[in-house]
Each structure stands twice: as structure tokens, then as C-alpha cells.
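Students often ask what a holo structure prediction actually looks like on paper. The answer is less mysterious than it sounds. You provide the chain, you provide the ligand, and the output is a string of C-alpha cells encoding the 3D arrangement of the protein together with uridine-5'-diphosphate.
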Amino acid sequence: MQKILLTGGAGYIGSHTAIYLLEHGYDVVIVDNLSNASRKAVDAIKNITRKSFKFYRADVRYKTALYKVFRENKIDAVVHFAGLKAVGESVDKPLMYYDNNLKSTVALLNVMKAYNVTRVVFSSSATIYADPDSRLYNEKTTKVARATNAYGTTKVMQEYILEDTVNGAEFSDAGGLKVMSLRYFNPIGAHESGDIGENPNGIPNNLAPYITQVLVGRREYLSVFGDDYDTPDGTCIRDYIHITDLAIGHTLALKYLFSLTGAHFDAINLGSGKGSSVFEVIKSFEKAAGAEVPYKITGRRAGDLPETVADVQKAKNILGFVTTHTLDDGTLDSLNWQQKHPNGFEELD
Ligand code: NAD
Ligand code: UDP
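The corresponding C-alpha cells follow.
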């Protein structure tokens, strides 16, 4: 049984990927410092899958902690989710973001090298595309540029760190480093059980958790950030991808890496290929809830682009990846999790 180390595996995307991997014949080990996750997410993974796995509360930046994990477990591949991800916070605290996100990737690669572990899937983001002329984002033709915020810049820099290490000689003796950088578009949804889901700290930055908190009465109304964009209904268009589809994408990426022998770097979009506006997302949630989502139109949010949609051809060609869940599945599952657990993991105390 292949053993996959998930850094940041207690977080939103990591925990759902852990469930999928455990239910599909993989063993997992999770390392998370719980800076943005709850220990209860780890318990929920165990309860849902009825499978046991090792969890280490540790910071990926610190090699001593990582050495222990690699010494105690024969790791076959890594999925590196660990990272800070709040765009606004990263603008205020860039050093914190560079320190956490860059140091963790460098430390992880060093320890992988020491243990001859050569396969890693990396959590990248659509935010690395900074091309105002593009609306359909293609891995080859859309420009990757210095992002508008420190969070995005850490993702650009981490892709460079990974690519340079693939092209360097440090992993040569081990057979070459193999990297799949997955550029996620907008994750939505939750596990079908409703017992694990997105659990943001404080006021949600993202659209879906904000709306679900409005729908369970935790927030009064949604602020729609602008209805004067050059889009059919004036609101921004994003590509929402169900969290289970994302988990499947990681599993396919791992399989692909296991099929490789030499050094390899690739970056692939994970999205649905379909754009939905803020108003369409609101309507989908209203259908799921059978209730209206109160909202007010406010000003545009700095840095928002009118439309970001994934070109999904490469994911299909290389990984055989196609999404099977719709936006309606995503809003229904997000709402189900929030209704079952209005206060997220806090109320499981
Ligand atoms: P999340 O915050 O729920 O999960 C990240 C996890 O990493 C958290 O559990 C946190 O405690 C842990 N972590 C952070 N720094 C760590 C460190 N130094 N050592 C150990 N653990 C650490 O976020 P998520 O939405 O699950 O995102 C997972 C990854 O995907 C992140 O790298 C994020 O940047 C990336 N991503 C997320 C989105 C999104 O919209 N959710 C989009 C694109 C990319
Ligand atoms: N959005 C909004 N109100 C909110 C949060 C988000 O109108 O409270 C909009 C935002 O302007 C964007 C879309 O919803 O057009 C998705 O935003 P999110 O932050 O979830 O993702 P990202 O901006 O990273 O694509």
C-alpha cells in the first residue's frame, strides 16, 4: 500500500483528499501544525473512513520534526498542502507569508532528498496567473507574473523553487525529483456526510463560506463586491470546482507521478472549465436552501479580476481528469455541512 504524506492534511482541501485516498487503497500520514485547522478535522477523517492513520502536530518549516516523520514512516510520495492562504492578511503581513510558505517548501524538499522521496504534488493556485488580457487561463499561453499580493507571490516562488530543483542535480542520485503543481481554481462543497467541510477562522474571505454563514444566521447579509464588471450580469465570474473533484485530481496526479521514472515538472489547472457569476452562485445557494440570500451591492474588492476560468484540456489529456460535480452539487454540500455544524468544528466540543 502506497503511503502518502499530506502536509496541511487537516485543512479544507487536505482533509477531503485524505478521505478520498484512505477510501481508495492508500495509506496516509498527516502533518499539520493546526495553525488554520482543528484537531477535530483529524477525528472527522477517522470517523468518516473508519481507517486509522498517523497524525503529527508539527510545523513543516522545522526539519527536525520532518525527519522524525520520515524516519518513522516509509513515505512514497508527498502532497504539500501546508501553507497560509488569506490574500488580505498576506498584504498586511508579507514576511509571515514568505516565512511560512517558502521555508516549509524548502525544508520539505531537503528532508525528501535525505530520504530519497522523489514525488511531490504541490498546491498551487489560479492566482499565479496575472494576465489581464486572458479570461480562459491556459498553462502555456496565459502569463504567470508577480501576483498582486504576497500570498500569490509565494505560490509563484514555490513553483520556481520546485522547478529549479527538478532541473538541478540534488535529486539525481535518487532518480530525479518529480513534481506536479496543481493550480486550483475555486474550491466549493464538502464531504457528502456533512461531517467535514470548510471551517474558516473569523470572517470568511471566500464567497461560499460567507453565504453559508448568512444562510444559517451567523451573518446578516452578503456583500457583493461590485456589479459593474464587464460580464453578462455585472458580477465577477469564477470557476468553482467541487472539493471531491479536487481530491480525485490529486489522486490522479499521484498516479501520474508514480508512472514516471526521471526528473519531471508539470503544472496543471484543476477547475471545471465553466464560469459562474456571483449572482449565479447566490441563486444556486437559494435553490439549495429554499430561502433567499440577503445581499447588498458594495464596491469592488481590490485586486479582483472580472473573469477567471480554467482551460481544462491539459488536465484531461495528461491526467484523464474531468469533473463530475456541478455548481449545484457544491452549494448543496457546502450548505449541508454548515447546517449540520453551524459553528463549524467548534460545536463538536
Ligand atoms: P487550509 O488553511 O484549510 O489548509 C492548510 C493547512 O496547512 C492548515 O490546516 C494549516 O494548519 C496548515 N499549515 C499551514 N502552515 C503550516 C506549517 N508551516 N506547518 C504545518 N502545517 C501548516 O487551506 P486549504 O484551502 O485546504 O488550502 C490548501 C492549500 O491549497 C494551501 O497551500 C492553499 O494556499 C492552496 N490553495 C487553496 C485554495 C482555496 O481557495 N482554498 C485555492 C488555491 C490554492
Ligand atoms: N465575493 C463577494 N463577496 C464576498 C466574497 C467574495 O462578492 O464576501 C466575490 C469576489 O469578488 C469574487 C468571487 O466572489 O468575484 C469569488 O471570491 P473568492 O474570494 O471566494 O475567490 P477568489 O477571489 O480568490 O477567486
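The chain is about 40% helix and 20% strand.
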